[in-house]
Sequence to fold (345 residues):
Amino acid sequence: MNINGRAVGDGAPVYIIAEMSANHAGSMERALELIHVAKDAGADCVKIQTYTADTMTIDCHNPYFQIEKGTWEGENLYGLYQKAYTPWAWQDKLRDEAAKVGIDFLSTPFDRTSVDFLEKLGVHFYKVASFELVDIPLLEYIASKNKPIIMSTGMGTLEEIEEAVAAIYGTGNRQLALMKCSSAYPAKSEEMNLRTICDMKARFDIPVGLSDHSMGAFSATTAVAMGADIIEKHFCISRAIENPDASFSMEPDEFHDMVQQVREVEKAMGKVSYGVSRQEESNACFRRSLFVVKDIAAGEQLTPDNIRSIRPAYGLKPKHYKEVLGKTAKRDIVRGTPLSFEDIE
Fold:
């Protein structure tokens, strides 16, 4: 998969998305600042969401539209989206600021009108939220723009994910990455089920990442060790700035630390490799080998009493020990001499 000229997938650096979401708390100046924060923290991309309360739901207060549990308990859906949305009038300025500081700009559309808006904005790729995984007509419309898509799969059954992938592929668009996600805010470690990342990669043979709503960096870095190609994480300037997403978002220093940990994990993962590494070369001499541990006269037999497998590694490999026992020395050999075949009749 290629995102804005950059390869994403096995063998490429992990692509790190900083999700602004509602953390601008209604301030365009704060939204612009968050773009700089994301860049300074080491993110590859800053993401927003493109919707209004009216494109998400209807203004209705019957029980269906009330949130009864979780982070937003007591909220009405319409009212929550009114608080959380990013005004569309800001988004060209946010796009331009991202380009100015050198960070990719991404948004999640939630209906056809927001896709049309983002097309006019000139976005290079799209994000699909977990809750929209089942909106097949929307997925087909996004895919019809023939741009790369990163699709979260929170709550999705395998059948639902397969249907969503098939819908996108059915348009001829095969530029797709999937994101393992736990759609809880915040998500608990014991419900992350990160092994699913490996299964999704095997099943779909496309890049797979983690959209992470858990606290801290542990799940993200673990996911990278398990092969995640993309990490998405909510971030904010301060959790003290009240907004619907603050409680499960990373502050700048935390996000920066996560990025550094991800990059260290990438280095540690490396490649399949056997034998002595470059860094190990100076220590290879401290392996074991066969040494003369008692003076041996010419014509004398080699025995367990006068040769041993010890450190360092300048003599014959220990695998030759049984082979040389009982052989005769060609010459006098002084204690502390590494044994070689040239010493033996």
In short: The mean pLDDT is 96.
